[in-house]
Amino acid sequence: METRSLIRWFEQTFDWKIGAITLVCLVLIWLIGHYGVKWLIGRLSRVERFGDTTHLIIECAQKPLTVVIYAMGVTEVLDYLNAPKSVLGLTGQLFQTWIVVSIGIALYYVTPTLMKRASTIGQTNILKTNAIMRSFTTTLLQVLLITVIGFAVLDIWNINVNGLLAGAGLTGLAISMAAQDQIRNFLGGAVIIAEKSFSIGDAIESPSIEGTVEDITFRSTKLRTPAGALQVVPNSTLANEPITNKSRVDVPRITLNYYLNVGTTEAQLTQFKVDILNFLKADQRFMASHMEYQVNVLEITSTGIHLQVNGPLSDMGIEQINATKADLNLAMIDMAQKRSIKFVQVGEMMSGDA
């Protein structure tokens, strides 16, 4: 019956004149929705007093605004043609779905910028002080947004959400049993955020991983290893391992890096390290009460040896930190000369590696 009514409406309504008018109207709607909105967004994007966040919101609004114009225009055309209620209803549902999805996509992509902007408000803002909380909250909001869009689309098409949820009970149980690892990873991420054991940008180390934290998601934490590789670690792994946060050492100290000639022998290097440790122990400006003196070889290349010295400071050393650093550098030169050890420039080591 619906098909017959549609055919009858089409035969009674359309002739060459009505068809031409309809075509012209649709072309005008497309021109306004495509080029008109594009021109408007371009003009607004060039307004200098708007900040970066406002410009991003304006750019993301282009697609939803275009869809709204298409929907309004086509609806007016169908109303002018006295389209059957079934056609108006179906067209309305299609355009409502398109609008909701377009707005959802725009909000999805603008959420990270809005969260970053929110983190700059106030002095004690938790999003400002905890980068991982900001990243995790952003991901959570995006997931909630997708969920809301899904329910909104179902509602537009008059699909009973309660019936779907009731019917999905056993399915959800089966899925939850199959997704135990994902649940553990999510809970592990929550533990990491709650304990604040590390944040984005911190250098961390555990029995199984080492690197700098770049991001945390529901499932995993992304690290950049010392070799420059990207390592993705399940949150459950980090939540169940002891973590050393190298970026949160509260002991005041001096950390200096030296680069020795590759011709330095093992015996020379060993004696040199002993000389440095003896110097640190003898100088009252250094104190190893909460942190040991450290002289470590970090890297050996074809052109040099990277030596790092960590000297925890006493109260006197903190007050005279610049003079202490200068005296340590002079002492290093003197001790190196006694051991016939030569220094090389950082650029020489880097060019040798390349």
pLDDT under 50 segments (min length 5)? 349-354
Strand content: 5-15%
Task: Provide the residue-averaged pLDDT.
Answer: 83
Number of strands: 8
Distance between the termini: 77 Å
Instruction: Give helix % range.
Output: 55-70%
Radius of gyration: 33 Å
Integer count of domains:
3
Oligomeric nature of the chains: single chain
How does the overall form come out from the CA principal axes?
Answer: elongated
Spatial strand order of the main sheet: 4-3-2-1-5
Largest sheet: 5 strands, antiparallel
- Please report the number of helical segments: 15
**How does the helix and strand content classify structurally?**
alpha+beta
Reading the helices and strands in chain order gives: HHHHHHHHHHEEEEHEEHEEHHH
Task: Give me a quick take on this structure.
This protein has 15 helices and eight strands.
Could you describe the 3D structure shown?
By secondary structure, the chain is α+β, with helices and mostly antiparallel strands. The chain has three domains: 2-158, no CATH class; 181-245, SH3 type barrels; 253-353, 2-Layer Sandwich (Alpha-Beta Plaits), CATH 3.30.70.100. It has 15 helices and eight strands. It has helices at 2-13, 16-45, 52-60, 62-80, 85-118, 126-129, 131-156, 161-167, 169-178, 180-195, 235-239, 266-282, 315-319, 321-338, 346-353; strands at 203-205, 210-216, 220-224, 230-234, 244-245, 253-261, 294-300, 304-312. The strands form two sheets. A five-stranded antiparallel β-sheet has the order 4-3-2-1-5. A three-stranded antiparallel β-sheet has the order 6-8-7. The termini are far apart. 16% of the residues are buried. The model is unreliable at 349-354 (pLDDT under 50). It is a multi-pass membrane protein.
